[in-house]
Every structure is written in C-alpha cells, then in structure tokens.
Design a protein that fits this description.
Elements lengths: L8 E5 L4 H12 L3 E6 L7 H7 L1 H4 L4 E5 L5 H10 L4 E4 L7 H5 L1 H22 L3 E7 L23 H20 L2 E7 L2 E2 L8 H10 L4 E4 L5 E2 L2 E2 H14 L3 E6 L5 E2 H12 L5 E4 L14 H7 L7 H16 L4
Parallel strand pairs: 1-2, 1-4, 2-3, 4-5, 5-6, 6-11, 7-10, 8-13
Antiparallel strand pairs: 9-12
The protein binds nicotinamide-adenine-dinucleotide.
Nicotinamide-adenine-dinucleotide binds next to helix 1, strand 2, helix 6 and strand 5.
C-alpha cells in the first residue's frame, strides 16, 4: 500500500464505528489522508470501537481526534488545522428501538450535532459533505421498493425523524451556499464489526452459544441487508461523483425475511435454531427494500455481495473470535 498522500484529506466523523472504520481504511488504502473524529460513546463497548480502529491507527496518514462533534470549537480547529477538503459525516446515535428510550439524546447528537458539522464545514470553506441518512426515513411506506422520490414525511421512530431532519438541514447548505451535500440512505448494513446490538451480530452470538434467538413478529418482516463492502463503495462513489443536493439509496435491492435470516446464520454455524417469539416492536417497519437505480446511474454503484455470501463472510469473521458482546 502506498504511504504517500495522493488524494484528499477527509474528515470522517464516527470513524471508530462500524461503517466509519471501514470507510477510513478504504480511504487510506487509496491514498487519501483521514482525520477520524469519534467520542467513543458507550452506546456499545468502546473497547470494540478501539479494536475497529486497529488497522487505521497504524497508518501514517490517519489522525485520530477523540472528541464530541457537538463542540463547535473543536470542529473549527480540526477542519482548518488539517486542511480538510471533504467531510464524511457518519457519527450518530444509531438504532431505532433505543431512540424510543432517549429521544432527546438522539435529537441532540443527530440533529444538533449535524448542525454543528455542516455549519463548521461551511465556515471552513469545505464544500463537499457526505452524510449518513437511513432507510428508516421511509417509515411504513407501502410502495416497494423504496425510491428516493417517495414521500418521507411519516417517520415512525425518533431516530428516523432525526435522519429526515439531517436531509432538510443539508438542503439548506446546498441551496444557500452552493455546497455539495450528499445524503446516503443506508439499508441495514452488516459485515465484520457490525454494531453488536444489530440483528445479525446478536443472532450469530446467541446461536453460537446455544441460546434461543428472539423473533419479533411472525418472522415475515423483510429487510434489504447490505454488505459493508458495498456500502463503502457507495460512500466513496458519492464522495468522488456526488454533485449538488442529492439523496441516494444504498442497499442490495433484495429482501430477506427474518425467519430466513435466522436459518441462514444457523446453517452457516451448523446449529439448529431455537426461536423465542415476541410481539412486534413499536418503531419496526414490515419491510425495507431499496430501489437503487439512481445510485447505479449517477454513482456507478453496483452491489456485489448477496446475503448468503455476506452471512458466510460474517460468520467466518465471527469464528475468528471477533464478534464480542456489547
Ligand atoms: N449500520 C446500519 O445498518 C445503518 C443503517 C442506516 C444508517 N446508518 C447510519 O450510519 C452511521 C454509522 O452507523 P454505524 O452502524 O457505523 O454506527 P456506530 O455506532 O458503530 O458508529 C457511530 C460512531 O459515532 C460515534 N459518535 C456518536 N456520537 C458522537 C459524538 N457526539 N461525537 C463524536 N462521535 C460520536 C460513536 O462513538 C460511534 O463510533 C450512523 O449515522 C447511522 O445512523 C447505519
């Protein structure tokens, strides 16, 4: 790998997280410099976040800043001191269900935090910002697959509302200041280092330990599961090719039922799953499914990893001893 800087200097917020750590590594590998900002919050074990950064920390073009994105002075300083040329804003309080427990915190980190990041970028003259939105903005949209122009005015969780708010905030910066503001609606992302409370990580751990797997609803709810490498491809394509104010779905554009997902993981682990049935959870939606034609056409996004292959890779990584508890 080249150690010389050949490209941009990118601020990655949430760089110690699941998606952020993969994005940081890929940017470094292609010759960019990365300033990683993360506050190692305790939503899940910060030791896992430190482990996520192991590879990046050994790289001479990676600089870690430990701090909170809501601190405006810190943002101002790191954008100018490091000559940042673009921002990939991934830091957030993630997760639908926990947002029902502490909606104020979600609003503070995700909405106020994004206001700080966007405004600091503008003030520093950084005109290119890519930020994480979510498939959850589609709420209970009944038209499948979900397309970017579908109405997204009916979120069903505080988390989804914060992500929709981010898209509105971004619009202001594109319209008033001519900034490139690209929002990426990620559809359930999985792969090595997935957040430990997310379904695939939690199910794999439980099945491997011979514990029952909780199934909310009748197992028929469907998700578009997107492998991390495909998401990183989409983030980099948006960084390189995004123009103006634009929103893109990033999914695999295929759906898997919850019952089938459990079967796939169990088969890969070589165990028989024991299911523990629970009623549906508030905030959950029956299906997500991404129409990715816009991302294909404008970004050249072309996801490569179907769920069967992705689960195989995830379980192989887990077997390497890395799927720790939250
Ligand atoms: N994983 C998915 O399936 C998925 C789906 C849709 C959207 N997203 C969005 O993608 C982004 C990344 O998600 P992830 O799964 O990697 O989550 P993650 O929790 O692993 O990563 C987020 C990181 O942000 C950091 N962070 C949180 N608050 C911060 C603050 N105030 N200051 C600085 N850093 C802070 C956390 O410590 C964490 O390392 C989030 O914006 C999330 O909402 C993820």
């Amino acid at each position: 790998m080249s150690r010389e800087q050949t490209g941009a200097t990118v601020l990655v917020t949430g760089a110690a997280g699941f998606i952020g750590s993969h994005v940081a590594e890929r940017l470094l590998a292609r010759g960019d410099a990365v300033i990683g900002l993360d506050n190692f919050d305790t939503f899940y074990d910060p030791a896992l976040k430190r482990a996520n950064l192991r590879a990046a920390l050994g790289h001479p073009r990676f600089h870690l800043v430990e701090g909170d994105l809501r601190e405006r002075a810190l943002l101002d300083r790191l954008l100018t001191d490091h000559g940042v040329t673009a921002v990939v804003h991934l830091a957030a309080r993630a997760g639908v269900r926990p947002s029902l427990v502490d909606p104020e915190l979600y609003a503070d980190v995700n909405v106020r935090g994004s206001a700080v990041v966007f405004e600091a970028a503008r003030a520093a003259g950084v005109t290119r910002v890519i930020y994480a939105s979510s498939s959850s903005v589609y709420g209970g949209n009944e038209k499948l697959p979900f397309a970017e122009d579908d109405p997204v005015d009916h979120p069903v969780s505080p988390y989804a509302a914060t992500k929709k708010a981010n898209e509105l905030q971004a619009h202001v910066y594109a319209r008033l200041f001519g900034m490139t503001m690209i929002g990426l609606r990620f559809f359930t992302v999985y792969g090595p280092r997935q957040r430990p409370e997310m379904a695939i990580a939690a199910f794999t751990r439980r099945l491997a330990e011979g514990r029952p797997v909780p199934m909310y609803g009748d197992g028929g709810s469907r998700r578009d599961y997107t492998y991390i490498d495909d998401i990183v491809d989409g983030v980099l394509a948006a960084l390189d090719r995004g123009r103006g104010y634009r929103i893109y779905n990033l999914g695999e554009s295929a759906t898997t039922t919850l019952a089938r997902l459990i079967e796939l993981i169990a088969a890969e682990l070589g165990v028989t799953p024991e299911i523990e049935r629970h009623p549906e959870q508030p905030g959950d939606v029956p299906a997500t499914w991404a129409d990715i034609s816009r991302a294909r056409e404008e970004l050249g996004y072309d996801p490569q990893v179907p769920v069967e292959e992705g689960i195989r890779r995830y379980v192989a990584w887990f077997r390497g001893g890395r799927g720790a508890a939250p």
